[in-house]
Specification:
- The protein has 405 residues and is an all-alpha fold.
- It has 2 domains: 184 residues, Growth Hormone, Chain: A; 209 residues, MFS general substrate transporter like domains (Growth Hormone, Chain: A, Up-down Bundle).
- It is built from 18 helices and no strands.
Length: 405
Amino acid sequence: MRSTPNRARTPLALYALTAGAFGIGTTEFVIMGLLLQVSADLHVSIAAAGLLISGYALGVFVGAPLLTAATSRLPHKTALIALMIIFTIGNLASALAPSYTVLMIARVITSLAHGTFFGVGAVVATGLVAEDRKASAISIMFTGLTVATLLGVPAGAWLGLHFGWRATFWAVSAIGVLATAIIALLVPADRGDSAPMKFVEELKGIAHPQVLLGLLMTVLGFAGVFAVFTYIQPILTRVTGFADSAVSPILLVFGGGMVIGNLLGGRLADRRLVATLLGSLAALALVLGAMAFALHSKPAMIAFSGLLGIAAFATVAPLQLRVLQKATAGQVLASSFNIAAFNLGNAIGAWLGGMVISHGPGLGAVTWVAALLPLLGLSVALWSVRLENSRPRPPARIACVETIL
């Protein structure tokens, strides 16, 4: 008998992990719909407000590998609860922040829980189901991230518009409290009877050249996405001419595109990983480049918001799978590093977009500048594939003998 009746269904504990992923995804992305309010209230430029995304992303980049190592000897359930408490405290501090500096510090504190939650959560998720459902379990947990963009971010932007940006962080803090309680109630305690791999041994798997190239693809691809998405509110209102109230519905379109792209990229990557990897990066560069010609058309920008969501998240599954396949050891750490790479890309993209806005050529040029980054990522991917295909093969004579035998 391969699986117990309890594992034949989707365990409730998986949905507890989804709730945590929803809260984390909301707090990461929601600031993009609040840039103008934060900028006006704290008396900083839009570019400076955009750096709140960079600060969060860099916190994930640093925190993911460090906290993964620090919590490796804790029971998984204990680690998840501790991470959600850090997340909640960080959001409470954001809601109460009296200045830009304090808000930045609060965002960094919040971000520390991000990468490790998804790393540990993936391990817990796969332990809750039978062997043939592990990938589905991980996808259920990550659904919380896409739903956060589909529903949480537009709702947060609406709250910020009508009740002030602090109300959004109060709401996310409440989500953190609820998610912590659900995880404590539903996630089973692990026995902790398996010896954890030494951190040095895990790092050896990360040092594989193909893993490093995969991480670089992730950084470049998502730097392009966030060079635009970070400043989507001012682009839509100041360049395209939408009213502030239209931003939330358009973010909903982007979130719907993310869900579609996530499912599409996963299915295609299961069939042909390399082709999907190359095709999704090319599609992302094409969408970002073409968006430059749609900036002054409201219908076109609504359509391109959805296309950007599709193209951006179609890359996630192939990028993640590529890194995991090439990691010879320490796949949990490799997964955490790739989440860190996504967020390093977010930080670089937010910084680059801010530079284009502040030092020229301005908001209208952000999209075509952003398109150059996934093009670089595609170049790295082609180089990676070429290196892989150029590995020495057995001599023809040996191959013939093997055929005869």
